[in-house]
Amino acid sequence: MADEQLVQNVVREVVARMQISAPARGMHGVFSDMEEAIEAARTAQQTVRLLPMDQREKIIGAIRRKTRENAEILARMAVNETGMGNVGDKILKHLLVADKVPGTEDISTRAFSGDRGLTLIEMGPFGVIGAITPCTNPSETVLCNTIGMLAGGNTVVFNPHPQAIKTTLFTIQMVNEASLEAGGPDNIACTVDAPTLATSEIMMKSPHIKLLVATGGPGVVTAVLSSGKRAIGAGAGNPPALVDETADIRKAAEDIVNGCTFDNNLPCIAEKEIVAVDSIADELLHYMLTEQGCYQASEEELDRLTKAVMDEKGRLNRKAVGRSARKLLSMIGVEVDANIRCITFFGPKEHPLITTELMMPILGIVRVKDFAEGLETAAWLEHGNKHSAHIHSKNVDRITEYARRLDTTITVKNGPSYAALGFGGESYCTFTIASRTGEGLTSARSFIKSRHCVMTDSLCVR
C-alpha cells in the first residue's frame, strides 16, 4: 500500500509540474515554438550522425533503463491523463518497449565484389525526422520511435496528440536525460509544449524535415502521405479473428479475449471481432462466458451500447475509447461483477459494433457456415487496411490460404494478437505498424537510407 501511495504521489507531482510552461521549467527537448524545436533537433543531429554505433547503443541502453525504472509512472500518467487503458497492461507495454525494441543491431552493412572492385552498401540517417504520435499509446510510441531513429543516426521532432501532452512531455524529457547521462547530446527528441494542427503543418512543411512518420488514424496518415515528402504511415485496422472447427476452441477463447482486452483493446493489432464457423460458435461463446470473463449483451443492451459509444455517423465517443467493459456497461446502466472484462454478442457482419474499429473490449461474433465463408467475411471486415488478422485453426492449408487472402502486415496463428509484438511470440516490439506504406513493423532499419560506396579496380582479392 505504501508503494502504491508513493507512485500516486509521484504521478501527482509530475502532472502538477506539467501544468507549468515546460520551457520555463527548463525541460530538455521541449520548446514553445516548432521552428525552435526543429532547429534544436538539427543541431543535435550534427552530433548524433557522427557518434559511433557503440555510443548510440549506450544512449539507447540508458533509455531502456529509464523506461524500466519509470514504467509504472508512465503507465499511471497515461491512464490519468487520457482515461484510456489500464495501468497493469501499460506497465507491461513499457517493459516490452525496453526489452524488445531493436537498436543498432538492426542496422547492417552489405558488400559485394567482382573483377572491377568492391561495393559497400552502408545505411545512413535521413537527418531530422518529423513524427506524429497518438493518445492511445503516447509514451510507448515516443520511446520506440526514438530508439529506432537514434540507432540510425537521426534525431526526431514530435507533434504529439494534445490529449496526451503531459505524458509525452515527460517521456521526451526522460529520453533526453538518458542521452545526457550516457554522454550524448541534448535534444535528440524535441517537441512543443502546446501541439496543434498549426504546429503539425509547420513540421510537415519544414525543409529541414526529411522524413515524416505518422502513427494514428486515417486522417493524419493521409496528411503525411500528401505532404510531398517521404512518409511512413501507421494507420487504422479492424483485425478479425477467424476460428474454424479444427481449432482448440478453449484455447482460442482464452487467446482471443486476452488479446482483445489487453490495455482495454487500445493496440491497433488487437482482435476487434470474431468470425466463427457455425459448428463451433456456441462452444466458443460458452468458454468466453464461463472462463474468460465475457458478458453477453442482449439486443436491447446492444442498441443502447451502440448509441453510447458512437454517434449516428459512426464517429466514436472519445469517452468510451479504451475504457473497460465494466465502464462501458455502466454507461448504459448495466452493473456487472469485477471479473467481467469483455462484452460479446452474435451479430451480422454489418453491425456497427463489428464493422467499426472500436478500440474497446467489445467482441462481436459473426457466424459463418464454413471456412470458405469465414475467409471472405474476415477479408470484408478487415476493410483492405492490410493491417492485422488472426486465425485459430490446426489446418495448415487453411492458415496459409487465410494469410494469403487477407495479405495483412501481421497474421497471428493460434495465439493472442500481442504475440506479434514479442509478448509470448517470436517477434520484436514497435507501436508504429506501417501497413499502408509497406514498412510493416517499423524498427531502426525503417529510418535509414541506402548509400553505395564503390571502390573501382581495388580490394577484390579473390
TrEMBL record:
CDD domains the record matches: ALDH_EutE
Residue ranges of every copy of the Aldehyde dehydrogenase domain listed in the record: 32-425
EC number(s) on file: 1.2.1.-
Record key words, sorted: NAD, Oxidoreductase
Any GO MF annotation of the entry: acetaldehyde dehydrogenase (acetylating) activity
One Pfam family cited in the UniProt record for this chain: Aldedh
InterPro entries: Acetald_propionald_DH-rel, Ald_DH/histidinol_DH, Ald_DH_C, Ald_DH_N, Aldehyde_DH_dom
Protein name listed in UniProt: Aldehyde dehydrogenase (NAD) family protein
Organism this protein belongs to: Shuttleworthella satelles DSM 14600
